[in-house]
């Protein structure tokens, strides 16, 4: 009692003052979302192992986490137990989830297991025991189901047919613990026997879960693997209340302690499953919808970077029509692309606040307005407002959400998904360059800008696919910060941003000056306009190929990144030596292939460095860093070209900047902290080594079964788990 009183005093003096605002709100109204039914064992402290706050959930505890079946006393009879009353209160209050939680070394289950294996005196004592009477009347069905599963009390073997679940093939758990797990499943069935619960389950407004704790034992996460050849269906047994046969299409199994292999529909279910999961069927749909989002994001990139990277065509037109200097005219495109990245933090903050869909739609509207407005200007200066600023901001609000949506939908194959969406920009540059050149020659640049206004309308339509995933993938509640400045405390990210900032001093120079460099060497403009297209073809191949390759565990993404940049630096430095059309085509293809590595892996490696929880803010700041060198690099190259009357120095400058970046990146793995939430290890290998989140607890959690028949059974360990990036 003394310890209890000391705890109360500590709470009143140290804890309660910081909780007063929350407690004041709860004093007027509490809206718990969950009912947790668990054992009264002193080793289980629900608010500790769930990290629940006051008002989060109802808690019902008894010996053996038992909920009597409704048939034992009838739906309309007056006989009422506290468990039934608690269920009715929770459901009527509007809880969304009910979870039954068992545990290892359960004394109630031990009593149930040995109830009929006793001496005459022990049997007489058990008949007068309230605990034994409680278990004999209301938990007998668990013992019956346990025996049916192939562990009979008399030690005899039983034929296992109608086969679905392998039961403890390794035989590394006690029979009492196995009974405890079966008891969890049986209590979920008992809960469903109540009409008011069953109605809510059928409506989809209530979900039912089972959890099981292994006290004092640490084990690794479950291993995913296909069924082995020697594991025939004769090794499996049927749980008659599990109706999965008509729903399972893939033969995939999940290793479980106690209940060995559990069949499930899609690997992504287990990969995505976390304690806050709502409906497994929605997860399967979300995985499929993720590819639709990926295609729509690729369309947005097709438009955004297709137009930005084709500015070299408009550059020649503006240079001839308005007669301004090369640097000032070329800066229109550089500033527009720079603004696309400059507004990155602003766009990321808006996405966190209002959602990616709303931000992308607004960006599309601004982009359409910018293109149409540009077609009516009469001098070069207003183009800086309509094209550089408005189009830059609108494209940013459409461009940044593409990466954020892919990150939210994909766990596995994330690099491939990013390769697909960034391939859209490569195809855009391939198509838009010749298209814009043909339109300018046939209908003039003003009507061309109006046509581009129609094209940018596609971004608005694509943005309607950006619906939020139906489940949250994080256990912790993420702080709702508009801008997270803590990413700058990560030294690896600081070096990463600095290196890519230097890289962008020279990155877009070939996109701007390659067509006019070709015309300087007497190559017709019609052919010169195709050079950006060849570059885009190479980039398309590189993005798809390296996006797929970088998902392999054996690939070190940082080494791949550095190698690609060095090749880009060498080819760009040697580009002035190519004075004929064939040589320039060779350069554009080589540059484009390894450019695919740079573009595809930016969000992936950034997530490796800072963790997925901070990816939104990190990308925003990274694009802000990009904007400054993008806007100044081409301007410096333009001044060099005016001074020397050639474009060779511009390419030399570009190659040098890219080479310096490749060297600086060697510091990133050294300076990146080893603990980042939702991040891979600092060697940047793809999903090879993952950071384990250590929690000071002796408990291990397993979600062993979902009670709604429309759901697929699954298992998840979440107090000691690996974070998949």
UniProtKB/TrEMBL annotation:
Major location (coarse): membrane
Keywords, ordered alphabetically: Membrane, Metal-binding, Transmembrane, Transmembrane helix, Zinc
Named cofactor requirement(s): Zn(2+)
Membrane topology term: Multi-pass membrane protein
Positions contributing to Zn(2+) binding: 39, 41, 103, 106
GO MF annotation list: carbonate dehydratase activity; transmembrane transporter activity; zinc ion binding
Pfam families: MFS_1 (PF07690), Pro_CA (PF00484)
Protein name in UniProt: Monocarboxylate transporter 10
Cross-referenced CDD domains: MFS_MCT_SLC16
SMART domains: Pro_CA
Subcellular location: Membrane
Family of the protein in this entry: Belongs to the beta-class carbonic anhydrase family.
Transmembrane segments: 289-318, 324-346, 358-377, 383-404, 416-436, 448-468, 493-516, 528-546, 558-579, 585-606, 618-639, 651-671
Top-level taxon of origin: Eukaryota
Residues in Major facilitator superfamily (MFS) profile domain copies: 485-725
GO terms for cellular component: membrane
Cofactor annotation remark: Binds 1 zinc ion per subunit.
């Amino acid at each position: 009692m003394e310890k209890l009183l000391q705890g109360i005093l500590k709470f009143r003096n140290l804890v309660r003052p910081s909780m007063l605002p929350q407690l004041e709100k709860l004093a007027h109204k509490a809206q718990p979302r969950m009912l947790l039914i668990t054992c009264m064992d002193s080793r289980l402290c629900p608010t500790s192992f769930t990290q629940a706050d006051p008002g989060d959930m109802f808690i019902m505890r008894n010996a053996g986490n038992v909920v009597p079946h409704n048939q034992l006393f009838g739906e309309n009879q007056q006989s009422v137990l506290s468990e039934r009353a608690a269920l009715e209160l929770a459901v009527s209050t509007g809880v969304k989830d009910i979870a039954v939680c068992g545990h290892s070394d359960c004394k109630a289950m031990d009593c149930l297991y040995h109830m009929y294996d006793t001496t005459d005196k022990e049997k007489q004592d058990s008949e007068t025991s309230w605990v034994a009477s409680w278990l004999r009347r209301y938990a007998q069905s668990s013992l019956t189901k346990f025996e049916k599963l192939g562990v009979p009390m008399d030690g005899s073997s039983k034929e296992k047919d109608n086969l679905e679940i392998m039961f403890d093939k390794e035989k590394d758990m006690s029979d009492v613990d196995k009974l405890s797990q079966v008891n969890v499943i049986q209590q979920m069935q008992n809960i469903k026997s109540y009409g008011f619960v069953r109605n809510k389950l059928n409506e989809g407004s209530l979900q039912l879960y089972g959890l099981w704790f292994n006290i004092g034992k640490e084990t690794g996460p479950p291993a995913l693997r296909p069924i082995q050849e020697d594991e025939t269906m004769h090794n499996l047994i049927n749980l008659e209340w599990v109706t999965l046969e008509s729903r399972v299409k893939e033969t995939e199994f999940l290793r479980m302690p106690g209940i060995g292999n559990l069949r499930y529909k899609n690997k992504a279910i287990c990969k995505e499953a976390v304690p806050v999961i709502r409906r497994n069927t929605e997860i399967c749909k979300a995985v499929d919808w993720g590819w639709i989002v990926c295609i729509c994001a690729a369309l947005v990139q097709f438009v955004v970077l297709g137009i930005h990277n084709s500015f070299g065509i408009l550059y020649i037109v503006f240079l001839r029509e308005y007669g301004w200097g090369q640097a000032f005219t070329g800066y229109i495109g550089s500033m527009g692309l720079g603004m696309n990245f400059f507004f990155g933090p602003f766009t990321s903050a808006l996405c966190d606040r209002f959602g990616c869909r709303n931000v992308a739609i607004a960006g599309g509207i601004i982009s359409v307005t910018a293109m149409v407005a540009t077609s009516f200007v009469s001098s070069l200066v207003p183009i800086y407002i309509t094209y550089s600023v408005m189009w830059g901001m609108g494209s940013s609000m459409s461009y940044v959400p593409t990466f954020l949506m892919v990150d939210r939908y994909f766990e596995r194959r994330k690099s491939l998904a990013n390769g697909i969406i960034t391939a859209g920009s490569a195809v855009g540059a391939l198509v838009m360059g010749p298209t814009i050149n043909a339109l300018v020659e046939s209908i003039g640049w003003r009507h061309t800008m109006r046509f581009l206004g129609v094209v940018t309308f596609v971004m608005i339509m694509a943005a309607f696919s950006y619906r939020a995933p139906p489940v949250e993938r994080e256990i912790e509640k993420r702080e709702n910060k508009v801008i997270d400045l803590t990413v700058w405390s990560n030294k690896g990210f600081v070096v990463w941003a600095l290196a890519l900032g230097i890289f962008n001093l020279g990155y877009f120079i070939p996109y701007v000056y390659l067509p006019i460099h070709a015309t300087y060497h007497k190559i017709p403009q019609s052919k010169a306009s195709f050079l950006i297209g060849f570059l885009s073809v190479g980039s398309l191949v590189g993005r798809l190929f390296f996006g797929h390759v970088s998902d392999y565990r054996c690939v070190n993404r940082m080494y791949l990144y550095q190698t690609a940049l060095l090749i880009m630096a060498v080819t760009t430095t040697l580009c002035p030596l190519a004075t004929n059309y064939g040589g320039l085509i060779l350069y554009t293809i080589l540059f484009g292939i390894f450019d695919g590595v740079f573009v595809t892996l930016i969000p992936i490696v950034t997530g490796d460095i800072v963790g997925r929880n901070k990816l939104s803010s990190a990308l925003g700041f990274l694009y802000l860093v990009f904007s400054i060198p993008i806007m100044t690099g081409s301007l410096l190259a333009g001044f060099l070209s005016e001074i020397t009357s050639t474009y060779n120095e511009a390419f030399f400058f570009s190659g040098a900047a890219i080479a310096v970046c490749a060297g600086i990146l060697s510091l990133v793995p050294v300076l990146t902290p080893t603990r980042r939430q939702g991040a891979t290890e600092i060697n940047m290998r793809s999903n090879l080594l993952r950071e384990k989140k250590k929690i000071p607890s002796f408990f291990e959690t397993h979600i062993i079964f979902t009670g709604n028949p429309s759901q697929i059974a699954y298992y998840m360990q979440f107090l000691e788990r690996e974070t998949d990036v």
